[in-house]
Amino acid sequence: MRVTDQPPNPLIVPAPMPIARPLDHALRILTKTADHGRLWMGVAAVGALASRRTRRGAFRGLASLSAASLVSNALLKPVFGRRRPDPERTVIARRIGELPWTSSFPSGHAASAAAFATGATLEVPWAGPLLVPLAAAVAYSRVHVGVHYRSDVWAGAAVGITVALIGRAMWPVKPWGPALMAAGNAPALPQGEGLTVILNGASGSSDGAADSISRALPKARILEWDPSTDIDDLVDELPKAFGVAGGDGTVASVAQLAHDHGLPLAVFPAGTFNHFAKALGLDTDAETVAAVETGTSGMVDLATIDGVPFLNTASIGQYPEMVRRRDKYSDRMGKWPATAYAILRTLRHEKPIDLVINGEKHPIWIVFIGNGRYSPRGLAPAWRDQLAGGVLDVQYLRADRRFSRTRAILYSIIGVARLSKVYGELEAGHVRIESLSGAKPVAHDGEITDPKDVVELSISDRRLIVYRATS
């Protein structure tokens, strides 16, 4: 054997302290950043500031993360109690220092990463190509630094994805873009030629809307309407299409005018809530302008209550008061907390009423009628997937079940209202509601009318042509 005093070739004999590669540094930093969900909280903060859409994605992502972390760390880890990998089997350059003391199975980091990425992607699909690789990197980093086995990571990821999907089943994802509707045949009106736009002169937003529409559609005719006068007297000659800028009550009035003459309707979102415009996928004036100039259109159902049209919802009894309270506090508290608060206030201070709905008597707390089937089911219906289904959606909270109010709130919060016996529902093309408790307030599309003891609701035989979002 050859003996030499020369130092060995470093390419053949490794150094006693392995040198960390850039990948080792990056994964050590990544895995530490993800401790306690800090990485995902930072991502959520960016999303919350970016737009309304990404804000919803951030909220669902964090909610999924919280639930997955609870399941993996508080429920599964104590059950399995798996020992962590031997740190001596991990290259020193990869180690992160002190070994975590909790069970190795499943990986909480992988569960949180998968839950956040899945939850956020359900709300914001285009974020998936960004979030999924990041979540996968976090999951792999736990194996790379030697604190988890591969099976821990796979199990954690499965927990996170499952929790996010269960969350979607309990709290459905609100669809983006226009709801489904029948095919329309509205004409394209370049620069608004042939379009007459009606504004609510009593609305404070009408001035700004008029300027915006005039700039975008210089050939459109713009008229101001006093709601105390007959809207038919406002129009001296029929245009190719009607437009409207205002709240949902104003939109419903102009919708009836367009429907009576068989003309298309363009809705500019100039109201406070713009429920109908959002159902058409129209969140901005620019989107309505694009639809008008390209002729992108569809046909939707027009509902009536005692002959008066409504496009979104109608109700009798306490529901109008609940909606008023919810909308009042939504910006301050968020929609779900505001809804829970409004429900508590309304149900606490009001008494049940006896209603006869299509011949069946029901003691109820709240009744809601939607033009089309609304989701989610329960006390906070918010959107429709279909605008031309030909049905009225009647949902009501029964007062003949024990602890119905408390159960209703709990079931609505956890998203299983449709499985509860405290809720009743009916879908029909015609609905007759009679109050046996005397005349009660009636509301439709945010407008509260005189109390009545009998109301008749129906879906018109002829659909309304509307301009809708192009995507």
TrEMBL record:
Domain DAGKc residues, every copy: 190-309
Keywords for the protein's UniProt record, in alphabetical order: Cell membrane, Hydrolase, Membrane, Transmembrane, Transmembrane helix
Coiled coil regions, renumbered to chain: none
PROSITE patterns associated with the record: DAGK (PS50146)
GO cellular component: plasma membrane
Cross-referenced Pfam families: DAGK_cat, PAP2
Membrane topology: Multi-pass membrane protein
Cited InterPro entries: ATP-NAD_kinase_N, Diacylglycerol_kinase_cat_dom, NAD/diacylglycerol_kinase_sf, PAP2/HPO, PAP2/HPO_sf
Domain of life: Bacteria
SUPFAM superfamilies per the UniProt record, alphabetical: Acid phosphatase/Vanadium-dependent haloperoxidase, NAD kinase/diacylglycerol kinase-like
Compartments where found: Cell membrane
GO molecular function: hydrolase activity; kinase activity
Name of the protein described by the UniProt record: Phosphoesterase PA-phosphatase related
Organism, scientific name: Nakamurella multipartita (strain ATCC 700099 / DSM 44233 / CIP 104796 / JCM 9543 / NBRC 105858 / Y-104) (Microsphaera multipartita)
